[in-house]
Amino acid sequence: MNKLYPAIKPYAKHKLEVENPHVLYVEESGNLDGLPILFLHGGPGAGCDTSHRQFFDPEVYRIVLFDQRGCGRSRPHAKLEGNNTHALIDDIERIREYLNIDRWVVFGGSWGSTLGLLYAQRHPEMVLGLILRGIFLCRKRDIDWFYQEGASNVFPDYWQEYIKPIAKEERNDMVQAYYKRLAGNDELARMGAAKAWSRWEACCATMNQDGQLLSHLSDPHTALSMARIECHYFINDSFIEPNQILSNIDAIRHIPTTIIHGRYDMVCPVEQAYALHKVWPEASLNIIGNAGHSAFEKGIVDALVSATRSLGYALA
To answer: Which residues are identified as catalytic?
Structure first.
């Protein structure tokens, strides 16, 4: 079974000014002359982690990571103004041009898969290949499943902690109720809501609860950006049209693509990957048994490393 590559450090770090006031943290690691690959993190608003570099052979790939607007080491932190899907796609192109990369592979999981698909549909000529994990189509039904009713029936105990900050009379629209708190001026209510929102996702992301993931997403810095930005996107229908991804597959049908999804993913149920594959049979779908949503479950790691290795050898 494939494991993550050994930890590495970046050989370059950049602060890239995009639309005022946003400044992006961008880093490069691996082989400067290697096959360029872009890592797109989840959330939106979760930020990158040092372990995200380890899905790629550093001798084969020029590995590009960046923290999307408002999260991680990008500034200003948890900023909602100017933070939308169209802006993020523009940022990706800005990074590609800034780094003098002609074309690259795009690797993304969860929200990163959403963003990767949307970027490829707008700029298919720039994408050499796609490796996508934990497909998130951002349809209303997908948001409702996790934040209103669906996963609540699988994790009723964790659900009680998620709904605790919300008054009973507001629970018929949890995203709206959370947004009122996360975008409000009451600092204590905002942080309490952020921690509850982020803990809910951490509790549901793995087959067996992962203490390290729970600790990471409960950290105030990460929790605030992820909860505020996710809720901001979801209250705005992720700034995309209904079924936008599934309706525009013809634009990317030719791009070599591997889809990897956990059979027991409760954050983004496998139906989303299956729906994508149904309209895009040319893409390879690998459903991993005994795995949930996290990129770091053993079966998911094995499949992702295998996919990066195979595509790297094919394109390098």
So the answer is: 110, 265, 293
* Selection from 262, 264, 261, 244 nearest residue 252 by Cα: 244
Distance CA 282, CA 260 (A): 14
Residues 61 and 77 in one domain: yes
- On whether the CB atoms of residues 26 and 13 are closer than 8 A, the answer is yes
From 91, 100, 55, 80, select the one nearest 258 (Cα to Cα): 55
In CATH, what number is assigned to the domain containing residue 22? Answer: 3.40.50.1820
**Domain interval for residue 44:** 12-139+240-315
Give yes or no: residues 247 and 120 share one domain: yes
Q: Per the domain annotation, does 104 fall within a domain? A: yes
H/E stretch holding 195 reads helix 187-204
**pLDDT tens string for the chain (316 positions)?**
999 999 999 999 999 999 999 999 999 999 999 999 999 999 999 999 999 999 999 999 999 999 999 999 999 999 999 999 999 999 999 999 999 999 999 999 999 999 999 999 999 999 999 999 999 999 999 999 999 999 999 999 999 999 999 999 999 999 999 999 999 999 999 999 999 999 999 999 998 776 777 677 778 899 999 999 999 999 999 999 999 999 999 999 999 999 999 999 999 999 999 999 999 999 999 999 999 999 999 999 999 999 999 999 898 7
Whole-model pTM over 0.85: yes
Residue 186 shares a structural domain with residue 245 = no
Q: In whole angstroms, what is the distance from residue 171 CA to residue 166 CA? A: 7
**Nearest Cα to 284, choosing from 315, 247, 256?**
256
